[in-house]
Amino acid sequence: MKARRAGTPLSSAAPAHRFALAYLPPLVAGIVLTPVFVLGGLMARLPGCWLLLYGAAAATGGAFSVRIVPILGLCFMALGVVAFAVPAAWGHWFMAAGFGGLHIGFGLVIARKYGG
User: Which residues neighbour 96 within 8 Å (Cβ) at sequence distance 6 or greater?
Assistant: First the structure.
């Protein structure tokens, strides 16, 4: 409904292509780095890696969305950097704060200000 109101057809390949070109490289980096971290004995540091790369994906992919989406990405990136700086045992709390807290908080703002 939102796309129809904006006059932007969802079937158009150009927006999806631009989004994928920006969003996928950081996610592919995460796919590659995950086994590297595991095999290197750095599994406890994966939360920082995942938060940082997911944030990069959201920031770059969100460049084609409303302004708050890239800000969400930057918040994820900041959380990832902090996750690397704190004791590794805190990683699950950072994952919860990012993938739970940030998504819920920003989702509420996006739903309220931008209609979903």
Answer: none
**Distance between CA atoms of 41 and 60, rounded to whole angstroms?**
30
Residue-wise pLDDT tens for the chain (116 aa)? 666 666 666 666 777 788 888 889 999 999 999 999 999 999 999 999 999 999 999 999 888 888 999 999 999 999 999 999 999 999 999 999 999 999 999 999 999 998 87
Q: Count the neighbouring beta carbons within 10 Å of the beta carbon of residue 84.
A: 15
Q: Is the dihedral of CA 74, 24, 26, 45 positive or negative?
A: positive
How much is the pTM?
Answer: 0.85
79 within 8 A of 56, measured Cβ to Cβ = no
* C-alpha torsion angle, residues 103, 109, 111, 116 (rounded to 10): -70
Which has the closest alpha carbon to 59: 8, 111, 7, 102?
102
- Give the burial string for 15-31 (b: 16+ CB within 10 Å, else e): eeeebeebbeebbeebe
